[in-house]
Design a protein that fits this description.
Radius of gyration: 41 Å
Shape: elongated
Helix content: 40-55%
Largest sheet: none
Number of helices: 10
Length: 204
């Protein structure tokens, strides 16, 4: 049976316990306490019980701690799936977007995501989804443009004619008409027409 890998000598049990109290990362604190038990002379089995893991995991923690110190006990972020496009392919896509499609060649008059995805497959033999291509284009500084919705029965020039009519100076006429109407409806009491009430005289 091979000897266990020793811990680095520039740390001690008290230091690791102090770091475990200060850290806000729960998994890192648990790993620090497990390695602190080894510094105190405990076995790797006891350290595994403290950490709630197996001996192989304790060995990995020791290797990470020896290489990077306490930061080696933090959970690393996954790098994610690598991009399907490289820099030269992105430059080719940018040139194609700037120049625009050739209707006789590409069969479209403007680029859509699905059209660009088809061109990328024909050019580089790379299958790429529209959502992935949209993220790539946004990272390159491009934004998707959508046409303003228009009613199917809207007459040509109707919007321009409406804007011209609304631009005419009709505000003063409107105010004058409104004031005249108000004066006709609201009259002072002194000018109100007196009403005559005729009652039949009662016989004695």
């Amino acid at each position: 049976m091979s000897a266990p890998i020793p811990l680095r000598q520039d740390f001690g049990a008290s230091q690791l316990r102090g770091l475990a109290k200060k850290t806000k990362d729960g998994p890192q604190a648990r790993r620090l306490l497990a390695l602190a038990a080894i510094y105190d002379g405990g076995t790797r089995t006891e350290a595994a019980k403290i950490g709630g893991v197996g001996l192989q995991i304790i060995r990995d923690w020791v290797l990470h701690f020896n290489a990077w110190g306490p930061d080696g006990l933090l959970n690393g972020k996954s790098p994610g799936q690598p991009s399907k496009l490289n820099d030269s392919q992105r430059q080719s896509i940018a040139r194609m977007i700037e120049s625009g499609p050739i209707p006789a060649v590409h069969g479209v008059v403007r680029w859509r995501l699905i059209d660009l995805a088809q061109w990328i497959f024909e050019e580089f033999r790379i299958t790429i989804a529209k959502q992935t291509l949209s993220r790539e284009l946004r990272a390159m500084g491009y934004r998707k443009l959508s046409a303003r919705p228009r009613h199917y029965a809207q007459a040509a020039g109707a919007i321009e004619d409406f804007k011209k009519r609304m631009a005419r100076p009709v505000a003063s006429d409107f105010i004058e008409y409104t004031l005249t109407g108000l004066l006709q409806r609201i009259r002072p009491a002194v000018y109100a027409t007196a009403k005559m009430e005729i009652r039949a005289s009662r016989s004695p």
